[in-house]
TrEMBL record:
<dbReference type="Pfam" id="PF04434">
    <property type="entry name" value="SWIM"/>
</dbReference>
<keyword id="KW-0479">Metal-binding</keyword>
<dbReference type="InterPro" id="IPR007527">
    <property type="entry name" value="Znf_SWIM"/>
</dbReference>
<keyword id="KW-0862">Zinc</keyword>
<keyword id="KW-0863">Zinc-finger</keyword>
<protein>
    <recommendedName>
        <fullName>SWIM-type domain-containing protein</fullName>
    </recommendedName>
</protein>
<feature type="domain" description="SWIM-type">
    <location>
        <begin position="76"/>
        <end position="114"/>
    </location>
</feature>
Length: 148
């Protein structure tokens, strides 16, 4: 079931991309379909996209990491290719309890990519490693510098 729901999610992300290109915005029908799959996290994710809280970080070797600034200014690292987020909700709700397909941050990343609303920043491969190994919740100051 999880596999088929993930497939539906990918189809919806494709439709989001198409709707943006064709109409410039999401249709009510598409929003309803997204809500059926993602429920409450959808609204939070759309807020994050509206506030342009998603940054796409790319390394010279082509690695991609997204950083999402959450509602409490906490920054979470997301890997869109492997569907992973460093937030506690992802660990608990997605990995442990398997209640959701993705957390609001990861959903926001997928939507921001489909809507082309991600901010972009180039980083070194060394920075990529540092971000993946660094617990952003431990140092709020560093996270703010990344979003200036
Ligand atoms: Zn998350």
């Amino acid at each position: 079931m999880a596999f088929s729901l993930r497939y539906v999610a990918d189809q919806l992300f494709s439709e989001v991309r198409f709707a943006k290109e064709q109409h410039g915005h999401l249709t009510d029908e598409l929003l309803s379909a997204l809500h059926c799959v993602f429920h409450q996290p959808l609204l939070h994710a759309l807020d994050l996209v509206d506030q342009r809280n998603i940054t796409r970080l790319t390394t010279p070797s082509g690695r991609v990491l997204h950083q999402v600034t959450g509602s409490s200014n906490q920054v979470y690292n997301c890997l869109i290719s492997g569907d992973f987020c460093t937030c506690p909700s992802y660990t608990f709700t997605v990995l442990v309890k398997m209640e959701s397909l993705m957390c609001k941050h990861l959903l926001a990343v997928h939507l921001a990519e489909a809507l082309r609303e991600s901010k972009k920043q180039d980083i070194s491969d060394e920075d990529f490693v540092a971000y993946m190994c660094y617990d952003s919740s431990a140092d709020d100051k560093n996270t703010k510098e990344l979003h200036v």
